[in-house]
UniProtKB/TrEMBL annotation:
GO terms for molecular function: ATP binding; kinase activity; magnesium ion binding; ribose phosphate diphosphokinase activity. Keywords: ATP-binding, Cytoplasm, Kinase, Magnesium, Metal-binding, Nucleotide biosynthesis, Nucleotide-binding, Transferase. Its EC number is 2.7.6.1. This is Ribose-phosphate pyrophosphokinase. It comes from Methanosphaera cuniculi. It comes from the Archaea. Mg(2+) 1 binds at residue 127. GO terms for biological process: 5-phosphoribose 1-diphosphate biosynthetic process; purine nucleotide biosynthetic process. Binds 2 Mg(2+) ions per subunit. Residues 148-246 form the Phosphoribosyltransferase domain.
Amino acid sequence: MIIGGSASQSLAAEVAKELNDKLCSVETKKFPDGERYFRIKDEIPEDEKVIIIQSTGYPQDENMMELFFILDTLSDMNIDDITVVSPYLGYSRQERRFKEVECISAKAISKLLQSMGVKHLISINLHEESICDLYDIPVDNLSAMPSIAEYIRENHEDKKPIILAPDKGAENFAKQIAEILNTDYDYLEKVRLSPEKVKTKTKSISVENRSVIIVDDIISTGGTIVNAINILKENGAKMVDVVCVHPVLVNDAILKISAAGANTIHGTNTLKSEVAHISVATTIADHLKNLENQ
């Protein structure tokens, strides 16, 4: 039985279809004062395995609270086997303390989810792998890179683009996609020319007259991507496309990235977004099938 939360209803429907599982009928709404209402409309046997699919991105508090409501309702129904699939797990970008006595938000969320009966958590491209260590239950951190690579293969006019990470931290994403597509990858690095002057350039590959696809896990304000586009244009890139796993894209990020010269902007449907053109349903469904076969 699959339950789709408000933030991931379309994705939940896709996963249910791929698994040939029943999609539970639910009722959700928001009261005039902003509070949430949730009700499960279908009968669920006590021994049924239930999978909740609910991203907890913006508005984080609202989506997280709805997830807690779903979990509490299932507890009242004596459902014990609960897996949560949160493709974008909110409050997970701080997994350690940087200043004295500040909240480690990822740890707080881990305590709340576990206290509400979650037996297994699945997410996609968590900001840090160490987040998994905050949980005492199994946590699977899936990669959206195969889905992104397949989308590029099917839709990009250049079959051998350079896959570029905007910094060293995202190099592994670029590498995964490039290996699937059998093409080149690189990342931008800062080179100190003098004590006062720093230049950012590609590490080892010339982008002159080449098509380049910038890949990152999260694009929020778009500042890093705009900087990368400018550098690529200065170095003669023929065309620059942008792709990410989690299209947070706050404020006018899409406008800024487009104005900088991006040909297209694509993200996955871990979050609702006007650029969420890449589905991770197969990635999630395949993983759930593998878990069942273990």
